[in-house]
Amino acid sequence: MACAQQCAAEYLRTAHEDLLTHLQNFPLIIDNLYQRHVLHDSEVDALKAEKTDFDKAKFLLDTVCKKGEAASYELLRILNITRKTTLHQASHFWISCFPFREDPEADSSVGANPCHHYQKQLKLKAQNILRRQWKQCSKFLQENTDGNFTYIPVVLDTDTDLNSARNKIKMKNRKCKKIRHKKLRSYIPVQKQNITPGDLLSSYEKTILLVGKPGIGKTSVVQYMLYLWFQKDNEELDYMFYFDESTLSQISKLTSLESLLFDLYCKPPKKHRTEVLQYIKENLDNMIIVFDGISTLQNNTTLQKIMDLDLFSEAKIVMTCRSDLEEDSFFPGRSLCKVYVQGFSKESVHRYFHQIVGSDSDFLSLVLNNHELMSLCHVPMYAFMVAECISFRDSTFLKCPLTVTEMYVHIFRQGLKRAGNKTARQVDKYMKDIKDQLCRLMESAFNATLQKTVNLPDTGSVNAEISKVLLRTITTEDTPNSVKQCQAFLHSTVQEFFSALWLLVNPGEIDKVVQLCQTEEHMHLKHVIPFLCGLLSKQNLILLKNLFLEDETQRTSAGFVAKLLNTFFQPQWNEEQMDEDEEDDVDVVFLCQCLYESQSPEACLLFLDKVDYHLDLSGNDIDPYQCVALSYVISQSKEREVHLSLDDCRMSDTEIQMLLKATPQLRYVLIYFPTGF
Fold it and tell me: Distance of alpha carbon 611 from its chain centroid, rounded?
């Protein structure tokens, strides 16, 4: 192949006919040729004087080719670097086939004009946005973060039929019928389509709508798109603007494209303002504009113009909104590519906690091996709250177990902190100020749990900011021309936690619920009881002191676990129907979970005495969290041996090791392994 300088002029001549109609954005081409001393002042004036683009292209090609190989090579190099703005797409392959020399210093000088300087301003703005966001997150996790922006992948899906409101209702009904551990597992999404933020950034889709419930990762996706744009080289002169919820509220007051991009977002130098604006208007297909957190178009004429294609008709628009706002009528003028953000996959949850908390954390296994917490943490917002709770515990806390209930209490307080925009010191007072609203939400949670539904009745009186942090909206088609909306918690275990809070506010209902949860019809209420036991622990009552009257909680706490044990050990049938193995029906594993959450050594000894220090786990599937609970109960026995029966008990080697390791009094523990274990 001939060298580049020997064939540049000929390469231009062979494509002369096509280039007459494929060249575009002449100001950018002329400016770069002038800076590289290929064109002189008189030639620039003559070129600008040509009336049509066809005449400008002919004059430019003839002039450059006459100047020889060096000038022709400069034009080809400029067209290659700025191809997206200066060449029709049909000529992109043609320019990519030319054998350019490696000359990075020369490449970096191309386009060193006001428009490129503005691109540098925008990249600095993007860097500052990402740095502020990461700094805000890492101030809680500073010992475990490296200071760099990090993106943990979330599951993205474009299947609109699968994610339709009607299909979601079917999936929700199907989920409710599953046994608990399968139901919890079904919350965690599986990556079926290999879609990444980079794919969205480079796609030819002009309008992308990211849809998902609160805290599911929509902002993380668009901010990672901003990060990818910031990180890439400057070969293409493209701009990216990012408007979050705080700036979106100001958009309605703006009247023009110039005021939106320059006055609200990033101002170019005053002397370059006109030139940059002209470039933007002529090259809208090189613009990417993100609106993160759209809630309504009403009374917002600027956004209405954008959606109606009156503004940014050729620009790439990326928007995020909550699931209840994805109606097509919300965006009347644009053809949408809907992308459903579904949160962390199982792999991403593991990666998140290993990266944020560290693989050596003594608390890591509590999250990753607990069905409830693992399922809850598919929502990145909750994963962050749990990680914050774990990171706060330093080495002085290691001997104090971290219960699941305590995790949820901190999630609850962190949610209030976000909703009210409060500091840690202000959360308690804020909790007291909105106690009535929280109690109504607790009541709605309990009533929904009682009725085996996630649809919450009557949440209209709940503060909008609280709803935004804790709840999601479910939309169903009521009629062909109307929809019905109701609210639900982001996760069913949060609903169970709020149900337990309601029982503490209404202690007279506790005995009734404990009795009901042992019946087949209301067996689902059983999952509220461990939360209730945990909430009655001294540490958690301190964190929730402004929700409950101290005297009432003391009366409820006194002897509650003993009463719970008596109820579960009490025969549920007549003496004539009992057999010698009646105690085999006692759910030992469940009661150990309750005891672990309550963190009461006295209650553990009472329980061990009732089972005569013999725990029969035969036929059970024991998960790692249950192993921790069992180990805690066994470890309270200081003077007597505890016998475990593990006939036909399914436990992994890891779980057996966990059980043995977590039990300091191993010399008091006799374990009977089943045959062939």
Answer: 45
